[in-house]
Hints:
The complex is a heterodimer.
Chain A: H1 12-43, H2 60-89, E1 96-103, E2 106-111, E3 116-118, E4 120-124, E5 128-135, E6 140-144, E7 149-153, E8 159-164, E9 169-175, E10 188-193, H3 195-204, H4 211-221, H5 225-228, E11 246-248, E12 254-256, H6 259-267, H7 290-302, H8 311-314, H9 324-328
Helix pairs in contact in A: 1-2, 4-7
Chain B: H1 24-28, H2 33-61, H3 72-107, H4 116-140, H5 152-156, H6 161-188, H7 201-233, H8 246-280, H9 287-301, H10 316-344, H11 353-376, H12 378-384, H13 388-418, H14 424-450, H15 465-495
Helix pairs in contact in B: 2-3, 2-4, 2-15, 3-4, 3-6, 3-7, 3-8, 3-13, 4-6, 6-7, 7-8, 7-9, 8-9, 8-10, 8-11, 8-13, 9-10, 10-11, 11-13, 11-14, 13-14, 14-15
Amino acid sequence: MHFLPEEASSFAGHVDALYLFLILVTAFFSLLIGTLVVVFAIRYRRKSPDEIATDVHESGALEIIWTVIPFGLTIVMFFWGASVYFRITRPPTNAIDVYVTAKQWMWKLQHADGHREMNELHVPIGQPVRLTMASEDVIHSFYVPAFRFKRDVVPGRFSVAWFQATKPGKYHLFCAEYCGTRHSNMIGWVYAMTPADYQAWLAGGNPGESLAAAGAKRFVENACNTCHGDVPGARGPSLAGVYGHAVRLSNGQTVIADEAYLRESIVNPQAKLVAGYPTIMPTFQGLIGEEGLLQLIAYIKSLSPPAPAGAAAASPAPAPAPTPERKASRP
Amino acid sequence: MSTSEPVPAVRPARPDYLNASYGVRSWLLTSDHKRIAILYLITVTFFFAIGGVAAALVRLELLTPAGDVFQAETYNKIFTTHGIMMVFFFLIPAIPAVLGNFLVPLMIGAKDLAFPRINLLSWYLLVIGGLIALWALIHGGLDTGWTFYTPYSTVYSNGWVVVTAVGIFIAGFSSILTGLNFIVTLHTMRAPGMTWTRMPLFCWGMYATAIIQILGTPVIAITLLLVGAERLFHLGIFDPAQGGDPVLFQHLFWFYSHPAVYIMILPAMAVISELVTAFSRKPIFGYKFIAGSSIAIAALSFLVWGHHMFVSGQSVYAGLVFSILSFMVAIPSAIKVFNWTATLYKGSVSYQTPLLYALGFIGLFTFGGLTGLFLASLGLDIHVHDTYFIVAHFHYIMVGGTIMAYLGGMHYWWPKISGKLYPEYWSRVSAWVIFIGFNLTFFPQFIVGYLGMPRRYHQYPEEFQVLNVMSTAGASILGIGYLIPLVYFIWSMRYGKDAADNPWGATGLEWQTPSPPPTENFVETPVVSGRPYDYATGREEVALG
Lengths: 331, 545
């Protein structure tokens, strides 16, 4: 029987090292207390019914010792746990993007080039994969035990997280947050592949339309282009080059235009208004579904120069999307 | 209600609280804290039985990987019933409402609690709340889990969310009123000479628990009210489709429900402090540190709720703060464990059944507490969050901790409560059966959890089956272990030998009065002139004055 799941991601070894340290601490103190209890209980067992015990009932030194040692150990655990956490929560810049839509009770996964998968995800090893996840209904949680990776997918917001597979194989994908009747059917597989196998897999299927291209269509369907067209004097700000850069707001603050900000600006436009523009944009809450939002974000991201450091090297990043007008004329 | 009714011939003439009056009315309208404790004992045993049957059905389904015994929806309703019955209607009331009610006035030399009729009211609230919730769970069904996460509970679930929430809401007032009663009683009704530092540690534990009950319970009441209102009137507080925030619910829920864990474990620790000292026949080691650590745990308990949300997307910095505060809870807990262990040192240790439970508690609580450190570690929690690892951890605390202590306390004070002795042989057998069954049930769950099996799964991959079979086998043993005491406690009420006033040779005012005690507890108000647990110099210092 195995006691550890496979170690198949760049975090797994770090998480397991901390786990083994904690097991050692747990074993040490459990055995210490267990042994002391048993030894004392036998050594000092009552020998006659009217025996009187020795009155030893305080020791300042001992109280200090067994306060300071656990304190020191927990501080070590805290910093160790926090350092592993930082490693897991900071996405690298050269990741390939995968967009995840969770709903009762399935995982829909879309690659940037348009490949769609259901309850299965193919990823290359040796390259970070960045998940932008949305839920269409309740809270779900994307969990791959072999990667020691888990992240809740909360409706009403994007959950962005990443992992890097290190070992080719087929690994469980579970929904870890209880989501209703068929929660335990909301499972699938992650296939980690060598870069060559991954390229072959990409070439194999019919990817169809890229996410950014689908987003470009929606951009026109929802008439976003009437205000956000890239022309002088437009009623809304141009979206070219916005993603990943600072935006000055009407209240004087500055925010970085990440996925969360772009999403909020679509469903709740007045929350963080760009400086110098009127409050005329209507809300699209409920008018555009989660997949549509992901497509629009992918489109807006495609209008920005690609991330530095080889993002395009292994991922078939979409070519800069055509202008919405031209795109719309196609079926 | 009065004590004027004739005493039947079969009993000795000495009047006690059990034979003071007869008839259903004399029980249902009693204001005697000891009788109310008996009412609570019957009530929580009933709810424990329901929760236990649900647990057995859960383990039955998990015997095989396929979901073949129940439909998925039924399975979800069963584990929800298990959680709600056990948490809200057994674990939270068990020790405070049964043992606390019986013992707090006796231990401090008082005739009753400060508000005897409010005490009776709080029992009625628990019964009414519990029956409403039970009706909703069985007749209508609820599949949200005991945690009611939004927006599943507010929008998507077809279960009886609102009715169940009303039941828990009502029972919450029972908890608040009991806490209020204990705080006022402990402040105002201690016998002459019983200063705060002469108070038994059981009472310190009840005091710390009561603080959490009155500060925390209103928050869960309001939160469930919001869930009900959102479900009925679509207010949009938690619903993202209306601009609400589902994670806000988690903050509100855990703001109570994490401290609620300490409502369950602090009274258990309080019981263990009494048992260890009584069966070592030695003053407790580090009295002030044990008392102070109870208050420290109560205070810290309100500052750690965010460790339930390390993977929900809360800010990294919030995660860091909640992580280090969660680690800090380990320190007062460790202080208690070390002091209990040191109490055995050079003691006069008698292996009677209550001590077996206490030693079992120390081992299981130590292990359960240490595995909590895994969950407080940010990077590690990401992997084990919402798996069977956490299920194993909290069952070590709640079952290995709270229920072991509750049973230990029931055995220790049963002669006082019933006036009868239970069979020593069978009680030792049951203590061992429970200890073995418990470990076989829950230890494999740590392993299957780290391997990645998520909780609340109706069916699971085949590679997890061996560990699940072990767990189900253990649960069967554990179930038998719980039935044995139920049988012999009832048996002893009729056939048990009469208990002496102080069968263990223990200190403490509750042992200075007859078994079972008279309705007014003490014929004369006792006067306390020495430190608690004064075994070394004999019991003369704690004399009836």
